[in-house]
Amino acid sequence: MCSLSLFHYSEYLVTAVNNPKSLSLDSFLLNHSLEYTVAAVSSWIEFTVENYFWPEMKQIVWLSVTGLLMVVFGECLRKAAMFTAGSNFNHVVQNEKSETHTLVTSGVYAWFRHPSYVGWFYWSIGTQVMLANPICGIAYALTVWRFFRDRTEEEEISLIHFFGEEYLEYKKKVPTGLPFIKGVKVEL
């Protein structure tokens, strides 16, 4: 519950600091989607049921510590991405370029094209590893991977439209950071 609370509160707080014009209650990401709510409730149910029937399964310290490290890494990477992007960061993929929108390629964006997605990917899977939830762990990994595969392609279409050759050069040099996700394919 602490990692979940910290994640949602810090999403709002960092948005308030970096991009106050886009700040709303939606910045907490609490009402992200029905799928997000189902995933959260499913993980709580899995933990409760498994803890009742197989409490020793929830006592694997090294596994919980590994999950905690994934959560901390993911949270730090995502917030570093948000701070680095500043007012360029938005929770909604933009279809129109604002006057102040610039291509951010420094900081964590020099390591990954989509560091906020990488952070959230490992944070979400880490929550399930920390809880020793094997069913939701696998389900989260598959679902989040699919979500970011599609989201990355959608966002990169906009970024190519906004920044053209500058983004294509960046795309050649820097990986997405997400396993087995290359981003949108560009035919020249």
TrEMBL record:
Record-linked InterPro entries: ICMT_MeTrfase, PPMT_MeTrfase
Catalytic activity: [protein]-C-terminal S-[(2E,6E)-farnesyl]-L-cysteine + S-adenosyl-L-methionine = [protein]-C-terminal S-[(2E,6E)-farnesyl]-L-cysteine methyl ester + S-adenosyl-L-homocysteine
A single GO BP: methylation
Any GO MF annotation of the entry: protein C-terminal S-isoprenylcysteine carboxyl O-methyltransferase activity
Any single GO CC term annotated in Swiss-Prot or TrEMBL for this entry: endoplasmic reticulum membrane
Keywords: Endoplasmic reticulum, Membrane, Methyltransferase, S-adenosyl-L-methionine, Transferase, Transmembrane, Transmembrane helix
UniProt EC number: 2.1.1.100
Topology in the lipid bilayer: Multi-pass membrane protein
Localisation per UniProt entry: Endoplasmic reticulum membrane
Main subcellular location of this protein, as a coarse class: endoplasmic reticulum
Pfam family, one: ICMT
Top-level lineage group: Eukaryota
Function recorded in the entry: Catalyzes the post-translational methylation of isoprenylated C-terminal cysteine residues.
Protein name: Protein-S-isoprenylcysteine O-methyltransferase
Species in which this protein is naturally found: Sarcophilus harrisii (Tasmanian devil)
